[in-house]
Amino acid sequence: MATITCDATSSPPNRVASPSNISVYVGNPPRELLIYSGVAIPEWESLSDLDWADVIVTLGPATTPLFSYTSTATLASITNTDSDLVFAVDQTTVVNGPTGLELRAHIGVKGEKSLFSRFSYHVQVLTDKLTTTIAGTIRWSSTLSNPTPEATIGSIDTFRVAAGSFVPGPGSASFATTVWEEQASTLVSTPPVLAGGFWAVPYTLVDLPLEVQLQVVPALLGGMLTPPIAPTFFPTPRLVTLTPDDPSAVGIDFELLDGSGTH
Amino acid sequence: MATVFPFTADSVDDFKIFNLPARSTRTVANLYVQITGLAIFNVDPDWDNLMDPLAWNRGTLTFETPQPVLQLGDNLIESAVTAGFGAINREEEGSTDDFGIAVDSVNSVETASYGGAKPFGNLKIVLNAGYKGDGWVQSVSFTADLLIYRPALDNVQKSPLNLVDLLTKERYLNIGQG
Fold it and tell me: Chain B neighbours among A 29-88 (CB < 8 Å)?
């Protein structure tokens, strides 16, 4: 049986047209829902008999070992030269394979001659529970300030978000003297998106401790906004405690305000 | 291969839509929408006059959602669209022996024009397609997964600055700077 390989992840894609993928957090505790679409181009030809082939489409990096999925593949491009014909996609499966997350489609074609050129695919993958993650959005009103050209194209870091907690200082048994103990941080350079009068950027913190109440604190970095503002964030801090049953928190959002009182 | 046609759907039937708040793992999108339907093309390409009857003829198939998908202020951030044959047709009489029918790729997904009685928020999807001989696509079956940023879904309740805000600001001001 012939095997035809296609790769939606290479640049440019190999034997795949208009590949797309999106991913969202779903459920509580969150899992990741990965959705892939595209048009695979096996160009599988028959000269008379019903000929079968396995098509392997690399969708993306391998995902968690335990995942669920649904998948469909439908005819998208066929050619026949005046003969009895069959074009078929009999089965699709999704696996963590040697090249990453793979869609495997069993296709057949018959004609004298027939060309099974393309099929469209749609794959939904629901991952296992995620490792510890805190994610959210930072937004600000476009009437407050606008991103600089560098921030607009994502060439500079715009925000730093940290998660940690205040612990007793050295030699102190009480919280009268506390120091900030940081557990994780991230720099944001994603270009801001404008919608409904708000600019917004996403952030994600990973590899966080469980069973610890964390304070999530954003900070505006220099060179991000024009005109500059005196930043304050609402609400600050956001308190999050991750647990084994609830190892991730999404929607930990902030709004950037001008604390100078001039806006 | 010549580009010889743009066809626009006469209707989108069996349209279905659902949405739920869901956060993208990569962008600020906070609303997930899935739409499905059948785009109906009541057109029989004039293959033997306007097209090269022996060659592939390429063009676009365009359809628009029959109801708004976006609200004012929304920003469509990401999409994943699948489109394939819903129904195909081939006429043999007077035709060439060879035929081919193709939905080659997804060209674009964008907000449709609006104004007057037409509301904001319909989506327009454009496909690249092809025909060879007297065959064509009567309907396109599609599924589109969409990720939208809707500021109203942010988990932020804005309040005016007050003393507590200012005091808290002082305590946390230097933390984020690392």
Answer: 32-33, 35-39, 72, 74-82
Q: What is the pLDDT of residue A263?
A: 47
What pLDDT does B135 receive?
Answer: 84
Distances (CA, A) of A57 to A35, A102, A193: 14, 5, 32
Hey, what domains does chain A have and what are their CATH numbers? Answer: 2-129 (no CATH), 133-258 (2.60.40)
Residue B98 reports pLDDT greater than 70: yes
Task: Provide the pLDDT for residue A174.
Answer: 58
Among chain A residues, the shortest Cα distance to B54 is held by: A81
- For chain B, the domains span 3-172
- Please state the ipTM of this predicted complex: 0.84
How far apart are alpha carbons A89 and A106 in whole angstroms? 6
A·B CB contacts under 8 A: 204
Q: Is A252 on the interface with B (CB under 8 A)?
A: yes
Radius of gyration of chain A (CA): 25
Is B22 touching A (CB cutoff 8 A)? Answer: yes
Nearest beta carbon to residue B177 from set A74, A219, A257? A219
Strand partners, B76: B148
Q: pLDDT tens-digit profile of A180-201?
A: 899 999 999 999 999 999 999 9
B163 pLDDT above the threshold of 80: no
Q: In 3D, which of B60, B81, B63, B46 has the Cα closest to residue B129?
A: B60
A35 and B75 in contact by Cβ < 8 A?
A: no
Q: Decide if B172 and A217 are in contact by the 8 Å CB cutoff.
A: yes
Instruction: Give pTM, 2 decimals.
Output: 0.81
